[in-house]
Each structure stands twice: as C-alpha cells, then as structure tokens.
Amino acid sequence: MQESSSFIPYIKRYLKRCITGPWSLLCGLSVTFKYFIDPRRIVTEQYPENRKTLKMHPRYRGRLEMIEDADGNNHCTACGMCERACPNASINVLSTKNIAGKKVLGRYVYHFASCTQCGLCVEACPFGAIRMNQDFEVATTDPNTLEMILNKKEGQG
Amino acid sequence: MFVPSVTNPIGDFVRNLVPQVTAYLPVAFQSETLDSVVAFLINAVICIIAVCAVNIGSAPILIYMERKVCAHVQCRLGPMRLGWHGTMQTIADVLKMLFKEVYAPSGADKLMFYTAPMIVLIAPFMVCALIPFSKDLVVADVSMGIPLIIAVNGFGVLGILLGGWSSNNKYSLLGALRSGAQIISYEISFAMILLFVVMISGSTNLMDITMSQQGTVFDWWIFKIPVLGFIAFILFFISSTAEMNRAPFDIAEAEQELTGGYHTEYNGTPFAMFYLAEYIALVTNSALATTCFLGGFHAPCIGFAPVDNVLNMVPGLVWFFGKVFFMIWCYMMVRWTFVRPRVDQLMDFEWKFLLPVNLVLLTAGAAWIAISG
What we know:
A: alpha+beta; 3 helices; B: mainly alpha; globular
C-alpha cells in the first residue's frame, strides 16, 4: 500500500521535471547566446595595445596618494590613525610643531614596497586626506623610489 | 570490371585517363586488367587523401572555433595575438604538441598504451568515408551505411578503455570505465534514433536517406514528420553529445574529479591524437545529423521559385558544410552552457528517460508511417 500511495506523486514529479528541466536548459542557453552575440559584454582588455585609452575601474586601488588642492595644501592633521590602521607598517607619519607650537604634519613617509593596497588607511582617515589612485604600472628597477614622501607642504593643522 | 569501382565523376575521370596514359607505355604494360587495377589504386589514394584532408584539415579550424565560441560565451576575446585575431594560434599549438617528447609512465603496457590513440582515430575516419558530402562526393556508397556507422562508432570506446587501462593510473582507469559505461549506454539511444531515420526514410544507405529529403525545407526529416522529427533530432543531439564524450557528458575526462580521465598519462603526439579524434568525431556526428535530419547537401529551399533557383546555384558541398558548421556551433554552445551531471544522474537520464522516450518515438514513427501510408 505504501508503494501505490507514493506512486502517483512520483509520476507527477517526473512529468513536471520533464517540462521544467528543458525549460531551465533553454533559459541557460538564452543567456549564453546573448553573451555570444553581444560584443559589448566583453570585458577583456588588450592591455599593451590599448595603453593610451585604458581606463581603470573606479574601484581599483593603486598607490596611496594625498589629496591636495591646487596650492598643494592637504587636510592631514598628523593624527596617525592611518599609521595605526596599516597592518604592515607601510606608513610613518612624522609630525612636527608649527610656530604656534601646535602639532602638524611634517613628513608623510609611505613604504610602497610593503604596501598591500588594502585601503584600510583610507578608511581610517577621519579627514579624508588620503586616497588610493589609479596607477597600475608601478614596477620599478630602483627600490629606493618605493620609499616616498607623499606631502609636498607641511600640514596646516 | 575486374576490381570494384566507385561510380562518381572523379573516379570515371581517372578510369578514362589511365588507359590514355598507359597507351604511351611499352606494349608489355598494356592490358585491360592492369589499367583497372591502377585506376582503382589511384582512386583509393584520392579517397584516402580526401578523407584525411577533411578530417585533419577541419581539426585546427574547429579548435580555433571552439576557443572563440567559448571565449565569447564567457565574455572574453579568446586568442588575439598570433596572426589576425589569433588565427595562427592553433597551428602553433599543433606544432608544440608534435615536438613534445613522447614517453609512457613506468609500469604502463607500452604496446596498448601507444595503440589506443590510433584505435580511437579509426572510428571517426571510417564514419567520414560513408558520409555523402555532395551528390557525387561520397567515398564509400555502401547499402548498409547506418548499421556500419553504428558498428564502427563502438570502436572509439575500445580505444578509450585501452588507453585508460594501459596507463597504470587509477584516474585513467576510472575515467575509462566510466566512459565505457556511458558510451555503451548512450549507444543504444544513438542506434535507435538512427533506426528511426532508417524506418521513415526506408533505406539504410546514407545517399538514399539524403535523396529522400529532396525538396523544400519542410521535406527534411526534422520538419517532415510533425513533432516526432524534432523530438528525434533533439534526442540524436543528446545521445551524440554523450557518444562524443563532450561536455555536458564529458565524465570520461571530468578534470575536476579525474585530472583528465583516460588521457591523464598521455602527452605529445598520442595526446594530440586523442584530441584530434574528439574533434573529428564532432565533424562526423554533425555530418550524420545533417545527413539524417537537415537534408544533407540539399539547399534550404522554401518553395518560392525565384529564391530557390538562387539557393540551388550554390553547390551542395557548401550547403553541407554550412549545415555541419551550424551543428558544430550548436554542440559548442551546449558544451559551454551546461553543467556536467554526476555519473548516476547520467545513467538515470539514459535508462529512465532517453530509452523509454526512444521506444515511444519508434512506435509513434511506425504509427505515423502506417497512417500516412
């Protein structure tokens, strides 16, 4: 009796899957067909050839840089949050004192060699003074160029 | 005549030419029998070269096509660097394959290990010889074409089993056994669909099957029988995909589970032969589908005289290869769209779905013939 009671639902399920199965396959085929005929969907970049026109994705995290206005002023207050947020000690914020005796940014030392471009410093900065730029051709033959000072002027505080 | 001869324009041309050439030879060499033997041998060489040209010539084109179709399905570009849009890439790959060192793993059965790829290559080559490419272009116009194809297609599984078994590798053995089980199962539905075509066309000769579809598009077997033809075509498509060991039925390779399956231990030229066999099987199965369902070398006439006259001006060979490449494109789209079923799902699908449907289809086809007369 157990057999006969479960037989009808089994057949129903079987027949239902005979319809839904091919339909789902057709849905999959329609997706790949759309991809196949639409060249705008291609994401591959022909990199060395299209170097002039290549535009990085806005989300890309390249080298760290300081946001500066036209006169070269920055928003850094030398609070050191980025230095503390950095997981591999790539940032050294060296502060100094201005004439009024207030702590301001002296030199913002950035060790690009040990940076993993995680972006935690940008998230930690309370003043929005730093950002990751779009540079991707950053290879160099001289390791000394990887030690850089990001700020042009001392901080105003 | 003394030796069997192929009746087609090229063969007749050779048979006429040979006596004219031998007339210049000394009298000792002039004889009716010798002429016919020489003509037969020349014809045989022409046939072998033609089959090899179609098969080996199509393989690089198909590999390039597969890469491009695969890339565009996955929003990529595919090979772009070597030659215009990467056209030379496959040639470079083939050369790389040929120049690699060939070696067998220690403990492998060397004789069987090196025989297996050749056995795999036999089946598609023999099937190719039976396909009518155009009205006069068929290498072997045998009356028992379909049974011969069914018989010869079984050769491929022998090579796969031998290759997997002789490799002395557990992955290879598992892949080969799985592939053997799969091909033997799906061969039943493959044969039944071909029998359906034989039943409705009334002949086992592939040329007669093609000629029985003469006329408009709606005389092709896929459309001529209202729904059954299309169902039969779909079933043929599924079972031939499984026969060819192509994804989604590529459990013989299943690289995620078996690191390459039966050809794990192969490299260099033997591996290239497995690869070649796979792509030639793609051509022959597409050609078989074209012959049995898509009207072979007939132009897709629509029953409107001015258009049909233009379409009929294009030679049958072009139509045939056009249809074959359309079928190959369909196989490739299926390959790069669907996911691979598990082994038990694969077997369930054959024995619980495909085979019953095939039997129903055969019965329905017989009923259709009885009703329509």
